Amino acid sequence: MGKPEKKVLINGEYLTFAEISKKYNISLSLIKGRYYSHHKRGEDLVKPTSLIKTEVNGELLTLAEIAKKYKLKRRNIDNRYAKGDRGLDLVRKPKRIYHTGLTDKNGNEITDLSKLSRLYHIKYKTLSGRYESGDRKEKLIRTAYRSHQQPTDVYDSNLKELSTTEVAQLSELSISTITHRRQNGYRGDSLLRKPRKGVSARW
User: Fold this and answer.
1) Beta-strand (E) ranges in the chain?
2) Is residue 168 part of a domain?
3) Are the C-beta atoms of residues 196 and 157 closer than 8 Å to each other?
4) Domain count, the chain
5) pTM above 0.90, yes or no
6) Mean pLDDT of the residues in the chain
7) Domain identity same for 153 and 203
């Protein structure tokens, strides 16, 4: 037999959280937040959110006013308040997740375009525009693949020759720098200058 649902006393009635939510038209997460995080009981559990005021950036605002001023969904503000977020935590912008289809060296998907920009030395604005156009995987970083697969005479520990793009990633030099050196006849150590650990050069 399952554990019986918790009931609390409100206006002379013992109700479960779900019953409270339905009867008073308040989200379940808000009720639980008030009960467990803020130790509200009785009528305080069902106080209309329109009457709640909290301080953000030195201003005392209702949750509706906060949502309008900071251009956020009211539901998000309510949920954050219920979880105990206050002040600037209430109005933080949710971090966007980008499903790029590209992975880092640990096999984890790269979901941050800023990180992708640093790895492949492509402007964030360029990556963002491509992503919004529907480009994913290699298409997203195509400039790194279109003209940067020429021989480098730089090899990893498995004796696989690295592309210009891979050399740029490992050496923390820009693709344009590596490309310029390669076009001027540099290869191996001369191309890499300061190889990172695990990368060797061969002539």
Assistant:
1) 7-10, 13-16, 53-56, 59-62, 154-156, 199-201
2) yes
3) no
4) 4
5) no
6) 78
7) yes
